[in-house]
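Hi U.,

Before I forget, here's the chain from the pilot set. I'm dumping it here mostly so it's searchable later in email.
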Amino acid sequence: MSNSGAVSKHSYKNLNVVESREDKIIYLSVNRPDKLNALNHDVLKELKDFFLAARESILDSGMRGVIFFGEGPKAFIAGADIAQLATLPPESAYEMSKTGQEVTLLMEEFPLPIIATVHGFALGGGCEMAMGADFIYATEDAIFGQPEVKLGLIPGFGGSQRLAKLIGRGRARELMYTGANLSAKEALAYGLVTKLFKNKEEMMAGAKMVISMMAKNSRQAIAEAKKVMNLGNDLTVKDGLKIEVSSFSKLFQTEEMKEGTNAFMQKRKANF
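Structure:
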């Protein structure tokens, strides 16, 4: 990634957060490569804290997207930290699951697009974190799965709900009941992954390029489009259309809408 003009504004033990003014991108990574970036309660809490702190002011920051990845060569996020899971009493397990779900909901509600860039393992909680993003890019060696049944568990960070919506109930049930892994090519064919890349470097460049394309458009309109699609996810088309017409009309009050339409009529590029 480009670090020119980049300023790190956050300090976390298990995360790296770099805001690149040049790229207009927040680079967010889980930084536990010795543990294959496995999720424990501390990592989940830091992710929650980051998204809570950033969401209020992010549209005024100049940033236009988030690239979410894992440090090291082997994994995006290999899953939850099994050593911690094995010792949790039910009440602590409830709190950990609740925190993980809150993180993925905050990702869905975050006003900027989030691209999960997956290399290596994205199993269990790692697959769930990736599904909380707007879409997933992956390298050809990426491996996805929800193998919790092999531990006597089920997904706890939203996987039992999101996976079926992304790849269909039959395929999701097969994967969750068997605990089988999904190759990157299979994930692409199923619709879990949007695009495949040969390696991590090409994938990061691809994610950076697509955010640069988004940056030419209205950030308010993108944020509203994300909100409308998420809200309509569990509604009938008829009820979803009510949300759409409300948001569509609301945008007519914005300066970005005025700039976009004026630029079109004046045959110039809009300055968002």
